[in-house]
Amino acid sequence: DTAVSQTPKYLVTQMGNDKSIKCEQNLGHDTMYWYKQDSKKFLKIMFSYNNKELIINETVPNRFSPKSPDKAHLNLHINSLELGDSAVYFCASSVRETSTDTQYFGPGTRLTVL
Amino acid sequence: DQQVKQNSPSLSVQEGRISILNCDYTNSMFDYFLWYKKYPAEGPTFLISISSIKDKNEDGRFTVFLNKSAKHLSLHIVPSQPGDSAVYFCAAANFGNEKLTFGTGTRLTIIP
């Protein structure tokens, strides 16, 4: 029984397309995150939602739009994909009170933009 | 602006010996530090953490040391085991804040 799951695991698409990555957690956590790991292996936070409310929004292009339908799900929609969007995207979740050290990560989605 | 740095991209250590992974940070506002471990095709997994009020935290074979004046922390694994082969990420934060700033990771290989 997977704690934090992401779909799809791999995504290959053409420049200019719009795509979505889904994330679900069954840990009962109230905070969810999206991280991006680029080709230089930097793992950087993009967004954080607490109880469906956006609490962290790093300087990410507005082509990226997170959507949290409920506190167990945080999806990432990317419009007009660019070559530089190729990366591994990780979803994570935590309980907000202890979120500094109990972030649980999903397995990642490797996005390749051609 | 790379606020957390892991200058060794890879490290190989004989099984049974000590593995020492290093991490440097530049932001003196960070007061909480973490190590995450990552296997291929999996997400990072929390390993151990340390608050800036301490200089050492130990959990079984894993010990993290913090030198605030040097803005340096290290993870010691002893004895090293083959299952420890993974990528280790150092991260820093302000305690109570959800935002973690990660280093680029060190790939540790334990040689049987």
- Portion of residues in helices of chain B? under 10%
What would you call the shape of chain A? globular
Rg on CA atoms of chain A, Å: 13 Å
Structural class of chain B: mainly beta
Low-confidence stretches of chain A: none
Count of discrete alpha- or pi-helical segments spanning 4 or more residues of chain A: 0
As a percent range, the share of strand residues of chain A is over 45%
Structural class of chain A: mainly beta
C-alpha termini separation of chain A: 34 Å
Average per-residue pLDDT of chain A, rounded, comes to: 91
Report the sheet-strand fraction of chain B. Answer: over 45%
Oligomer: heterodimer
Query: Could you tell me the number of beta strands of chain A?
Result: 11
Which regions of chain B are unreliable across 5 or more consecutive residues at pLDDT < 50? Answer: none
Describe the biggest sheet of chain A? Answer: 7 strands, mixed
* Main sheet properties of chain B: 6 strands, mixed
Strand segment tally of chain B: 11
Q: What is the CA-atom radius of gyration of chain B, in angstroms? A: 13 Å
Question: Which SSEs are present, and which pair or pack?
Answer:
The complex is a heterodimer of chains A (114) and B (112).
Chain A: E1 4-7, E2 10-13, E3 19-25, E4 31-37, E5 43-50, E6 53-57, E7 64-70, E8 73-78, E9 87-94, E10 104-105, E11 109-113
Chain B: E1 4-5, E2 10-14, E3 19-25, E4 32-38, E5 45-51, E6 56-59, E7 62-67, E8 72-77, E9 86-93, E10 101-102, E11 106-111
Parallel strand pairs in B: 2-11
Antiparallel strand pairs in B: 1-3, 3-8, 4-5, 4-9, 6-7, 7-8, 9-10, 9-11
